[in-house]
Amino acid sequence: MVERASDPGLSYAAGPTDVPLLEETIGANLERTAARHGDREALVEVASGRRWTYAEFDAAVNEVARGLLGRGIAVGDRVGIWAPNCAEWTIVQYATAKIGAVLVNINPAYRTHELSYVLNQSGLRMLICARQFKSSDYRGMVDEVRGDCEALEEVVYIATSDWDELVAAGDGVAADAVVERLATLKPTDPINIQYTSGTTGFPKGATLSHRNILNNGYFVTELIGFTEQDRLAIPVPFYHCFGMVMGNLGCTSHGAAMVIPAPAFDPGDTLQAVSDEKCTGVYGVPTMFIAMQNHPAMNGEDDPAYDLSSLRTGLMAGSPCPIEVMKRCVHDMHMAEVGIAYGMTETSPVSTQTRVDDDLERRTSTIGRVHPHVEIKIVDPVAGETLPRDEPGELCTRGYSVMIGYWEEPELTAESIDSDGWMHTGDLAVIREDGYANIVGRIKDMIIRGGENVYPREIEEFLYTHPDIADVQVIGVPDEKYGEEVCAWVRMRDGTQPLDAGAVREFSQGKLAHFKIPRYVMIVDEFPMTVTGKVRKVEMREKTVTELGLESSDPAERSVEGEIGAMG
Fold this sequence. Notes:
This protein folds into two domains: 23-427, Rossmann fold (3-Layer(aba) Sandwich), CATH 3.40.50.12780; 447-566, GMP Synthetase, Chain A, domain 3 (2-Layer Sandwich). By secondary structure, it is of the alpha/beta class. The two termini are 27 Å apart.
C-alpha cells in the first residue's frame, strides 16, 4: 500500500487509499465470500467439534436470520447477545447484520446493575444469551432484572429448546425474505452497539455501521497478509471488537477460517487449537501471549506437545508489548509477521498498526503507523492546534472508522467528535519523525486494571446507592499484578458504622463486574480539595500509596484478566 503524503513537520498522518473501501453491507460481503469459497472451512468450534464450510455457515446464518424475521424483528430493532465465545455468537452476529437488526454486545462479566442499564438504554427487544458460564448464572440475572426492562419481549437461551424454536420460527418465512431484507440495507446503517465505560457514570453505547466494522476488520487483516488460505485462532472475546471485528470480520472478508479455541481464554486450549487446526494466526493481548509462552509444554522440553510451525502472523493489542515477549512470538511461536494494533471501540477499533516487515523496536515501542483511509493528528488539548512531531498531545482520528455516535447520547457524541469529524480519543500520544505513533499517557481520569478500562464515575454512582455512604471518590492505585487497582475513598453518613473493603465488595458482588469492585477502601472525614472546590485525586492517590505502602508494577507482569479492554 502507498502512503499518502503527510506534513513531515507536523503531527499529522494520512493512511494509504490505493486499496478501496468495501462499500457493501456485512451480509452482502458474507454472501460474496460464500460464493467464492463455499467449500472452504469458515468456522470451527473446537470445544464441540462442530465445523462449517462457508456454504454451510451462510446457510446457518440465513436460518437464524429467517427465524428473527419470523419473530418480527425489524430493521433497526436491537437484539442483544450475552454469552462467552461460541459458534452461536458468530452466527447471530451475521444473522442480525443480514436483516438490519442492531446487535448489542453485552460483556459476559456484567452483573445485574450493568445488565439492567444496557437493556434499558439500548431499548433491547430480544436477548440471546447463555444459560450460565463459570460463576455467571445468566438465567438468574435475567430473571432478576427482566421486569424492569419494558422493551424486552423475548429471551432466547443458547443450547436449549429456545434456540431450536427461534430457528423453527423461520419455517413459515419465505425463502427469499432474507435476500429481500438485505437488499434494503445500506453500508452506513447502524448495525452494532458496543458499550464502553463512560465518565457519565454508566457505559456509553458506541454505535457502529456495516461500513465502520466491515472495513476495519478487512484492513486489519489486509495488513497482516490474510487470504483464504489463513486460519485464525480467536481466543479474544467476541463481545469486544478485537474478537468480532478484527477476528470474525477480518476472516470472513477474506474467506479465512475462524477457529474458536474455547469459550474463554485458556493458554493450553489456545495452543492445542493452533496445533490441531494448523492455524496460521492467533490474536491476543500481551499477557495472553505471556501465558502461552510460559505454558509447561513451551518450556524445557525437547519435543513440545504443540506444533506451532503453521503460525506466521497474528495481532497483539490492548497494552504495550514487552520486547522479550515479542522476540518469543517471532522465534518460539513462528510468528515472524506478528503485528501491533491500537484503537478504541469508537473507531471500529483500529487506527494505527505496525506492518509485517517492521523491526522489533517499532513493534514493541510504538503503536504503528496510520491505518488505510484514516487520518490521525496530535493536538494541544487546550488550544486544539496540531503540534510538531515528537511533541505530546491528544491523539485525534478521522475517517470511515469513526462511529456514528453514542446511542441516544447526542451531547456526549458532540463532546467526542468535533464539527470536522475528528474523534478525540482522550489519549496522550506522539507521532515520531518516522511516522510511527506512541501512547504516552491519558487525559481522562481512567483506571486501567489489568488492561480493562475502568472509569471512576461509574463505580462512584453505584456506591452512592449504599444507604450508609454519604460521598465517595474512586481512584486508581499501583498494583503489582494488575498495574492498577481500584480504591474508593468513602465518607460515611452520620451515625453509621464505617465500612471496610470486605463490606464494599459484598455490596458490589453480583452487581458490578469483578474488575470494577474496589480492592481498597479508605474511610475519611473529608476529601482533599483545591481552592476552587474540586477534589484533588492526585493527592488522594499519593496518600493512599504512602499509607498502604504500594509500589508501581511492570506492565509485563499484569494479568490476562480484562486486558482486552484497553483497546476501547
